[in-house]
Amino acid sequence: MKILVTGAAGFIGFHLCKVLLEKGHDVVGLDNINDYYDVELKHARLSQLGIDKKKSTHFNNPVNSERYKDKFLFLRMHLEDRTALPQLFQKEKFEIVCNMAAQAGVRYSLENPDTYVDSNVVGFLNVLECCRHEGIKNLIYASSSSVYGDSSKVPFTENEQVDKPISLYAATKKSNELMAHTYSHLYGIMTTGLRFFTVYGPWGRPDMALFLFTEAILKGKSIEVFNNGLLERDFTYIDDIVGGVMKVIESDLNSDSKGDSLYKVYNIGNGQPVKLTDFIEVIEKILDKKAIKNMMPMQPGDVTTTWADLGNLKQDFDYSPNTGISVGVRAFIEWYRNYYHL
Known about the structure:
Blueprint: E1 2-6, H1 11-22, E2 26-31, H2 39-48, E3 63-64, E4 72-76, H3 84-92, E5 96-99, H4 108-111, H5 113-133, E6 138-144, H6 168-187, E7 190-196, E8 199-200, H7 209-218, E9 222-225, E10 232-233, E11 236-237, H8 238-250, E12 263-268, E13 274-275, H9 276-287, E14 292-295, H10 311-317, H11 325-339
Parallel strand pairs: 1-2, 1-5, 2-4, 5-6, 6-7, 7-12, 8-11, 9-14
Antiparallel strand pairs: 3-4, 10-13
Helix pairs in contact: 1-8, 3-5, 5-6, 7-9, 9-11
């Protein structure tokens, strides 16, 4: 199939592109390569897909992969570009669109709200409009566990009311689900929202806990432990996340669906929340070095617990992530040491 992956230089988008290419699909990757975190890491991910950094510095300039030949095309572009994105859709005639692009981060949304509206709301609307006008019948997009807010009803189930977000990032992700429902209802587009739960693993984002903790511990610096460590997260390994996305891509589950049944939302998590203090202990054990903990209060927009109910994912796709935290953390640390030549 010919598949568009937005956010191709991002953590999840990169891994998804890699698996799609390994399975023989034709992939067009799109990313604006913004400076929210180290752009060199984004270029390094793209280099794994055969994209030369020197050839991908200009917006809207297609670059063929040196590694995957004519199977992978990369473009640097903003999702909210109302001229370039429709032209891309018109030219490439995608069969499936995977929207993994978004301005990520809960705390950053407190300081830079405009960025979240531009990318996550305006950009997503642009994607929906392109799907509508070019007859794309299958849109898969990244939502987030953050839509559940600070719900005390665990595990989180997809039929739970999620109309009380506690961060702008969460609000934009919930808006994506609402917008997707509208386009499924009005225009017959099959939309599948995937609520990802705390994704981690090799090539991860530098603003995520595992990256921050590993870096600080190795450098002998203190780590910030929020809510005095009284937090739980449903940490989900990157390969399990991509495995779930692939199940949706390759499924014909909804091929005969009509009306509101075209709209689906699924949790993708590990289904086993881990205490933050236990998570830190796993990192310490693998690094063979103790962390210097700076105990901090709860941060605005943060939540105490995330925990995915995987019943619907298991029922519809016979899929349940199962990578243990020790295995996943070890894989990340091995990548980290190799990437930074430690």
